[in-house]
UniProtKB/TrEMBL annotation:
Pfam families: SIS_2. PROSITE patterns: SIS. It comes from the Bacteria. InterPro entries: RpiR-like_SIS, SIS_dom, SIS_dom_sf, SIS_GmhA/DiaA_subfam, UPF0309. SUPFAM superfamilies: SIS domain. PANTHER family: PHOSPHOHEPTOSE ISOMERASE (PTHR30390:SF7), SEDOHEPTULOSE 7-PHOSPHATE ISOMERASE / DNAA INITIATOR-ASSOCIATING FACTOR FOR REPLICATION INITIATION (PTHR30390). This is UPF0309 protein OG442_24475. NCBIfam families: PRK02947.1 (NF002805). Residues 36-221 form the SIS domain. Belongs to the UPF0309 family.
Amino acid sequence: MSESTLAGQFFGAAIGLLERVRDEEAANIAAAGKAIADTVAAGGRVFAFGAGHSSLAAQDVVYRAGGLALMNLLNVPGVMGVDVMPATLGSALERVDGLAGAVLDSSPATSGDVLVIISLSGRNALPVEMALNARALGLTVIGVTSVAYATETKSRHVTGTYLKDHCDIVLDSKIAVGDAELSADGIEAPFAPASTVVTSALMQAMVATAAGDLVARGIEPPMLRSGNVDGGHEWNGRLMTEYGDRIFYRH
């Protein structure tokens, strides 16, 4: 596909970003994978949270073929955006003080667990407070965010801080402020966001690293198989039984 087409330009931009995070975030990805492996090996649990479109990358690592069975979604009702009416309510909830604390207090997350918090801007109250409260509870917090927002936008949290300021490990998605890779004559707004592509890749790279780290310790990582291949349901059922006390998306 020609780079002269808009589709070609988008693929070029996305590939460039993927290459940047692969090379520039390698050490942070390794640290995040080790933190998850440490928790799995110690019998802990792993959670992922994202609001708005950042929730897509969190959902992408939960209960999926090839995924870590112990990855759980920390759900905050209404903040995924497109699952509520009006969709703008999700954005509004991200700015509500105290919501993160209430969610964590009623969740199964506890000291020694890992929480991956995904927020492109990292500037809203919800992800900042989620990180603050999680660390106070003794969780290891991994943030996946665009660090550029911390220098080019104003925090919406009362402390003036960002998600990146309250994490044990930060993965920088390198996404430019505004999350739009293209512009063109006749199209007044910039368009073609790449944050979902890049953030999901960072999440999968982190999980893959954790799996490899566990194998190096002599521990078989509990990875789910596709339910659409022969034997997949039986394989997954065994994992659900064996790790049932650490999986919260099942009855």
